[in-house]
Design a protein that fits this description.
The protein has 5 helices and no strands. With about 120 residues, the protein is mainly alpha-helical. The chain is globular. The two termini are about 30 Å apart.
């Protein structure tokens, strides 16, 4: 199925963006399933983020949605990192949550830079 998606894309850059988004979606799904027992709310949110990203990938591949799939994948990754930081805070880790918070902030900064460069206005599509 993944190969079918990659055949539909024309440029190498689009193919790499799709592969990155698929990996982030799978990571989000796996993280959600792994943490659903200890942190049920966070597990469900991670699973939903993964499903939403997969739907976005399918819409992007079929050209039904004009969106910056790389920015969506990076935003999903940022939220997953924020949830991971919260889990480490609640488990009593001392310095590890700060690394995850910094990574999440850098991901969000990257999203804003990508959207600014692409000149995407929220009200238009």
């Amino acid at each position: 199925m993944k190969m079918l998606f990659l055949r539909l894309m024309k440029t190498k850059k689009e193919k790499l963006e799709i592969v990155q988004a698929v990996l982030v979606a799978l990571l989000s799904l796996f993280t959600g399933f792994q943490n659903r027992l200890q942190f049920p709310f966070i597990g469900i949110i991670n699973i939903l983020l993964g499903i939403i990203l997969i739907i976005g990938i399918i819409a992007f591949v079929k050209k039904k949605a004009h969106l910056n799939i790389k920015a969506v994948a990076l935003a999903t990754e940022a939220f997953s990192l924020l949830f991971a930081a919260y889990m480490y805070f609640s488990n009593g880790k001392q310095y590890l949550p700060y690394a995850f918070l910094l990574a999440a902030l850098l991901c969000l900064a990257g999203v804003f830079i990508m959207l600014k460069k692409a000149k995407i206005n929220p009200g238009t599509s």
